[in-house]
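U., I forgot to send this yesterday:
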Amino acid sequence: MRRACAFLTLLMFSCATATQEGTLTADPYTKDEFPQWTRDLRRTEIISLGSLPFVTIGTTLAYSLIQGIDRSALPEEDQKNVLYLSLGISLALGLTDLTINLINRYTGKNKTAVATGITVTEKAAPPSADKGKPDSPEAAGTPEAKESPIEAASPPIEAAPPPASPPQQQQ
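Result:
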């Protein structure tokens, strides 16, 4: 009886798959398919759950060092404390990332500018005497033509003359 049921089930599923025409392909998600808050929530979830194993290892090591190294295993109450502390730290990491991203999005600043507080501006290269010549890089508009402000302010380095060779003796 059991073999007959297994055979009928196998036959039913094989017939169902044999009658399907073609294969279905899913369309990739577009950028506007989900609202921004769901993407932020998903990122927070990924960071919180992704950091949990690493935070748990670190918390267990720190907790064991604080309590004493002579134990081989943590008691059940200590294991619960380590787990709760790890969950709290992981959640704090995810919420910190969410807060930083929201601040950056609504202030219009990128992460580098917020973290360092440095604003970079590009200065134009000083005019050159070669600018009018057709075969100069500046006339052609190539990127090699631009000088950095440090190169423009420093005097050109002249090549030193080659050292004098010692007189050779004739034999």
